[in-house]
Amino acid sequence: MVVTIPKLDLMISLIGAFASSMLAFILPPVLELVHLWERRNEIRGFWVFVFAKHLFFITVGLISFVGGTVATLIQLIEAFDKPEQPH
């Protein structure tokens, strides 16, 4: 299978950059904010502690998502621009 898909390692890196930041940093805080949103006025310090913490994690996730995706796309473009070396 590896022979049939060129640059499989870079494709896996692209999927990893997308999925890992989404699953680890972005999705959990968003889901918890959605879950707690109706009770935000009942929770003491919601805006300071909960919302600020989740906003920080979402920001870190977006930075890692964009950085990892751009870096992998640059590597993919460079890899496909090079002529194939005969074996």
From TrEMBL:
<feature type="transmembrane region" description="Helical">
    <location>
        <begin position="12"/>
        <end position="34"/>
    </location>
</feature>
<dbReference type="GO" id="GO:0016020">
    <property type="term" value="C:membrane"/>
</dbReference>
<protein>
    <recommendedName>
        <fullName>Amino acid transporter transmembrane domain-containing protein</fullName>
    </recommendedName>
</protein>
<dbReference type="Pfam" id="PF01490">
    <property type="entry name" value="Aa_trans"/>
</dbReference>
<keyword id="KW-0812">Transmembrane</keyword>
<feature type="transmembrane region" description="Helical">
    <location>
        <begin position="55"/>
        <end position="77"/>
    </location>
</feature>
<feature type="domain" description="Amino acid transporter transmembrane">
    <location>
        <begin position="2"/>
        <end position="73"/>
    </location>
</feature>
<dbReference type="InterPro" id="IPR013057">
    <property type="entry name" value="AA_transpt_TM"/>
</dbReference>
<keyword id="KW-0472">Membrane</keyword>
<keyword id="KW-1133">Transmembrane helix</keyword>
